[in-house]
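Incident review: delayed structure delivery

Summary: a single-chain prediction request sat in the queue longer than the usual turnaround. Root cause was a stuck worker, restarted by the on-call engineer. No data loss occurred. The affected request and its eventual output are reproduced below so the record is complete for anyone auditing the incident later.

Affected input:
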Amino acid sequence: MRCLLPEKQKISLLAGAKMGFFHHTGSARVIIKRPYHVLGILTAMLDIVIVVSLAALMYGAKSHEPASPLAAVLLGLVLITALSRSLLTFVSIRLLKWQANHDPVTKLPNQQLFQQRLSHFMAAEGSSSVALYLINIDRFKLFIGSLGYLTCNKLIVAVAQHLASKLENNPNVQLYRFEADTFGLVAFKPEKPRQIAAWVLEALHQPVYIDHREFCVTVSVGFSLYPQDGRNATRLLHAADLALQQAKKRGGNAWCRYRPEFEHPTPQPLALEGYLRHAIDHNELELYFQPQVRLDDGGLCGAEITLRWHHPEYQLLNPQDFIPMAEETGLIGPITEWIMQEACQQLLAWRRASFKPIRLAVNISAQQFHQQKLPELLERMLQIYPVAPHWLELEITESVAMLDIEHTTRTLERLKQIGVLLALDDFGTGFSSLSYLRRFPIDTLKLDRSFITSIENDPKSAAIACGVVTLGHNLQLKTLAEGIETRGQWALLQACGCDEGQGFLFGKPMPAKSFEALLHQSGTGAEKTQTSNAKPTI
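Output delivered after worker restart:
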């Protein structure tokens, strides 16, 4: 058998095979774990086998010796190797295609494959319904700041597994990973789209365990429906994103269905961020005070501080319009420090005006609690402003407390040593275990308004509210109910033995001047007593 390749072509073929081999082995030294590098190395080695076999055949042909069994073997080797190389090329192409359409961390389909499948379904099925869900991990930037990117990748994988296990029995539901902290979910021909959103929240009711540490992860969900909310993938994504933003504004761990009114103009986050960076310097922020009363006699006993922003363009903005953005951009730190400073100054001003002392409650964000040196900040404030620490109460939500149990316990114990009061806000909405509740050195349990709203008409809600009150008292804790709006709710909570309450029945958040009128009217309520059937003094 003679070779038809000229000598120069033989040399160039051999050199090319060597270059390919060294190129792939060099890549393999960098990262051998990637499958396409391994396939590249195998392909290059097969190239060398082909070249060496052809060279041997050409040498035998040049010597003019009769064909030998070795030549037949080499020819067969060339054919087998060529077929193997073709198979490896096919596998490599399939692997690269799979990697282009899947997330490397969770192995879930990515946004590109989502758009392809959704567009194909819309074109093929026409008017059949589709529900599109955007799922965003709450406080993900806080996780990154506390755990680092590598551990957060494990967190993302764990969240994906929780979601997949909850939805695995529904063949019409497909889960995707879009970006860092966002998943997508498509339900084809859904019968109960709201129930699917509730399932997503339920999937993370159990804590996530990473490297022997326990974390409570929550998500926010926004969803839209085809064809009601959009006729293409881009429009459906936009609608679901608007719904997701509304769920985030509710504090997370919530779902929201898209509604057309979400399209109405609202302050743009980028524009707000630019203004917010200078809001403190320009004296645009103002403290508002919502009264807290004793439920047995209606006497004023404290106030929860909320924030308002006098924006130069959008007038008066409520906290939900700018606090989430402040948390994302890191501006919540200086804002919380300003709030504490103003609260201490206000307490001193009321003391100079001969008002009796009153407790002021300040909400602490997740970022401030877990990333900032909160005890040191508070000690510095109390050194500058001579305020008795027990007239300050710091509130953290249940979900913030459960984010990192060990850090929460250490920080609360340090704050307790300083002498401030500690309250667990929104109790009953998260996943706290009673064992952790026993470990936290808190003073007050705040019942979430979701339990209070329906206690007049729903015996189960009333039973839960009374059960939390009893639990708090058994743990030697004070209980405070949020969102009281009717006298019927007040009477029921009073019968349960709840200690304190707040809500529109007793007063909306108000500026300092308006709150001072209540102080005048009630004598601050700190030492005032009335009969249990009396109307609120405020």
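Verification: The chain has a mean pLDDT of 79.
Action items: add queue-age alerting; document worker restart procedure.
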